[in-house]
Every structure is written in structure tokens, then in C-alpha cells.
Specification:
This protein is an all-alpha fold. The protein has a domain of 66 residues: Rna Polymerase Sigma Factor, Chain: A. It has eight helices and no strands. Helix 1 runs parallel beside helix 3, helix 4 packs antiparallel against helix 5 and helix 7 crosses helix 8. The longest helix is centred in the C-terminal third of the chain and has 22 residues. The N and C termini lie far apart (42 Å).
């Protein structure tokens, strides 16, 4: 639990952009893992299995309780208390967050896991239960979409 706690919470936060929701879903991830530990077959790393549970929890939460517009507004209004000297980097980070939030669900999940969590394509493939080729295509599309949007804004 302790070994994976921070990473799972960070993953949930990166997907949801809300500390309280991330905390709740990280906790729910560990509860589900505890209840379903007998279903862990050992075909992948334990951390991969745990990430899969966390990603599913986050995607289900987004679908059911967090409309995209509400998530977008929450992201754009966060971070107002940053010091003035961090203004430019803060604005850029917010622009990235807004753009990532606009990506289609699968692209957002792939980008978060591959780029922000620094997982391999194989690990992302196992977590999302999609072929590696699909993961690579979605990662490429996510980066392309982010690049196009940022070029328009900068």
C-alpha cells in the first residue's frame, strides 16, 4: 500500500485535477485491489494491475459524475494563489492542463500514463487493455493535438 500510495494518488490527480476526488478515488482503488487480490493472476506487474484499477475508477468517475465542462472550468480556475514570479510558467502549465482535459478520453489516459507517469507503451497497453499499436497511435494523436492547440495559442 505505502509503496504505491503516492503514485496512485498522483495518477488520479493528473486525470481528475481535483485533490479531494483524487484522494477518494485512490483510496477506492486500494479497497478494490484488496477485495479483488485473488483475481490478480500475476501475468503483469502488480503496479500495472493497480494502475489499471485506478484508471478505470477515474474514467468511470469522469463519465458518471464529472461533466467535461465542469472539469475544464475547475482546471482553468486553479492555481490563482501562485507567486507573481511563477506567473508565466503557471500560465503555460494551465494551458497544458486545459488542453489535456480537452483530449478524448483514451488519448488523455494514454498521454497521462505514457508522458506524465513515464510508463512504457507495453505497461500502458496492459493497463488500458489495448494493443501496443493502438496505444502508440493514441499517444501520437494526443501529442499532435496538444502541439496543434498550443501552436494556435502561443
Amino acid at each position: 500500500f505505502r509503496r504505491h500510495q503516492v503514485k496512485i494518488h498522483d495518477l488520479c490527480y493528473k486525470m481528475l485535477r481535483n485533490y479531494d476526488d483524487a484522494k477518494d478515488l485512490a483510496q477506492e482503488t486500494f479497497l478494490k485491489a484488496y477485495r479483488k487480490i485473488n483475481k490478480f493472476a500475476g501475468r503483469s506487474k502488480f503496479s500495472t494491475w493497480l494502475y489499471r484499477i485506478a484508471v478505470n475508477n477515474c474514467l468511470n468517475f469522469i463519465k458518471k459524475q464529472r461533466p467535461t465542462e465542469e472539469l475544464f472550468e475547475e482546471i482553468t480556475s486553479s492555481g490563482k494563489d501562485d507567486p507573481v514570479q511563477k506567473y508565466k510558467s503557471k500560465k503555460f502549465r494551465e494551458m497544458i492542463k486545459r488542453t489535456v482535459a480537452k483530449l478524448p478520453e483514451v488519448q488523455r489516459a494514454v498521454f497521462t500514463l505514457r508522458t506524465l507517469e513515464d510508463l512504457s507503451y507495453q505497461e500502458v497497453s496492459e493497463i488500458l487493455r489495448k494493443p501496443v499499436s493502438t496505444i502508440k497511435v493514441n499517444h501520437h494523436l494526443a501529442v499532435k493535438n496538444l502541439r496543434n492547440y498550443l501552436r494556435q495559442k502561443i
